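Lab notebook, bench 4. Still working through the backlog of constructs that have no structural model yet. Next entry is a single chain of 120 residues. Request: give me the structure tokens for it.
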Amino acid sequence: MGIQHPSNVKTEKIKATTIFDKFLPQILPQVEVLAKRIGAVYVFKIPGEGEWTVDLPKGTVSQGVAGRADFTMSIDSDGFSDMLLGRFDVAHAFATRRMSVTGDINLLGAFGSLLRPAGV
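Model written out:
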């Protein structure tokens, strides 16, 4: 059975723990070439759910902030879920300070490409 993308699951909300503790560890080996091409370290901070480091060069996902990051995103749980479900206006989120980032904003789009590989 293939890995089902979380946004394909009929739900009103996707928890960050589902993405970082279950989905990404399963999908990273399948998108290894793309992950290494992006070659960035991401930190996601979701108040009330946790913090995770996604190290694409190493192909790992770990809880907490592990060293330096090329891109850090802080976003509330509902915003994170809405972003994954395609119901999120990034410009509005910045304007209302619902989301903050440090690092290269282009890496956000690159990370999104990991979540949409063919066949997932």
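Notes after review: The CA atoms of residues 25 and 61 lie 6 Å apart. The two ends are 11 Å apart (CA to CA). Flag for follow-up if needed.
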